[in-house]
Amino acid sequence: MADSPEMVPVRMLTQHAYCPRLGYMEWVQQEFAYNEEVVEGENHHRNVDAPSGFDKHRDAGEEDLVHVTSVNLSDEALGLTCKADLLELQGKNAVPVEYKRGRIPDNPRRAYDSHIVQLCAQGLLLRANGYACTKGVVYYVTSRKRVDVEFDDETVAATLKCLHDMRETAAGGTIPPPLVDSPKCPRCSLVGICLPDETRALSEGAEKVDPDSVRRMFPIRDDAMPVYVQDQGARVSLSGDRMVITPRAGEASSVRFLDVSALTLYGNVQVTTQAARRLCREDIPICHMSYGGRFEGITTGTISKNVDLRLRQYAAHQSSARRMAVARQVVHGKIRNSITMLRRNHASPPKDVLDGMERLAERAAAAKQYEALLGMEGAAARMYFGAFSGMIKSDSEAFKFEERNRRPPKDPVNALLSYLYSLLCRQAVVAALCAGFDPYLGFLHMPKYGKPSLALDIMEEFRPIIADSTCLTLVNNGSIAKSDMIITKFGVNLTNDGRIKVIRAYERRMDTTVRHALLGYSASYRRILATQVRLLARHVAGEIPAYPPFMTR
Predict the structure, then answer these.
(1) d(Cα 371, Cα 275) in Å, to the nearest integer?
(2) For the segment 294-322, what is each residue's pLDDT rounded down to a tens digit?
(3) Structural domains of the chain in order of their starting residue, each with its CATH number
(4) What is the DSSP letter of 388?
(5) Using CA atoms, how far apart are residues 17 and 169, in angstroms rounded to an integer?
(6) Cα distance between residue 546 and residue 203, in whole Å
């Protein structure tokens, strides 16, 4: 960023001392995420989060020891601000006390460097506000012991240097590199956003990646799952920590907000103000779909504060060279995955089709002109869908496939594909928003009113291996029938029961574990898609030279 904020929160200074990259992401880019350790730390702070003790301090004598919690401190000369957990005050003498999860570390000072910096910064603020402060205390909750930290000249100098370095880093506008093989990374709540090992491995190009150097530092699957509501007239409301879904007829059901990643509504489903506000506060998006499944909009809390990424996204889009670099990779990955689908599922994949698509994939990776790239993508799609019927094993006349058509789809297979693409598009929009991108400004797909161009870019490489694969599974396993379709002379749509079957199959596919061929670890498709969006962010930010598309083998 061109300018850094005037007042540095001491909490951000602590993060910088722990990891400069973490400090930059939380302060400049305003990224934040919860993990088990963050939640545990917040629970330990509950007793000192509520302001108390001010009245006692005001009325106390010079010799009385008073405990004051949740105290806001700031000083413009230092350029620091903080909310201290606990202050032990005796007249004009003050001792800041910080509650920390975990045990006392085995080092000479018996406290972590970042904790020492945090305490010393609070001590400097107390001095600036007229108190004598020569030491602080860290209380390690697991050990149940206090550790004194003396504010000697060396500690003060180290703290002021840390503050200076943080300001310099923020003003420079370049995110610090990730730590190297650090044990701090797996415990960091931002590891799925930072992608430290992935960024380092890809910093010299995808062809030089050593999969053994990349650790998977996030769960294989997400605990939270999307919730779909399509009963017309249903109502979504709030009850404590649960989201209650009351259908037009029948019994209500509920789910914990903790277990919800997104709420998707089809048609006329009502959400109470209380439930909508809670969903926004929990950063759970509400996706609005038409009754037929067309994506119409999204309700979220405050948009991602990472304006730095959006500025870089706009700059990258303005550069034809950078725009083409991403578009080439997207098309290359899509064609490669389409070839993989034919090899896996076609009884006897036509050699001329495979060879033709192989040539188009190679040409796409080296394309110089945007129009030529679009032509290659279109030619590969025609070849792919020309052989698509060979992957359908059903004998039913209803599921014969001749060509790809849409708006509206004219046969059941095309109806399935269109519906699945809309589900995938919704997922891509949510992933783009979570990363801080503008989902309406893409690289392959040009901006157009109401068109989520970046989301369409994101989903391209996943169309064959998620949407098309789910369609084939439903048809070939007999999980979907002609009775699940509404067939008219104007087009084909899914029935209510048909949509439920498709959504369930799609979510099973998203929950399937797959190996990331480039990075070497396994995760669910849902996790892989989110990781790809974060890798795109790392490329847009200039940390990796090229966007690496996800390709299965």
Answers:
(1) 46
(2) 778 888 877 778 888 999 999 999 999 99
(3) 8-172 (3.90.320.10), 225-299 (3.100.10.20), 322-540 (1.20.120.920)
(4) G
(5) 12
(6) 9
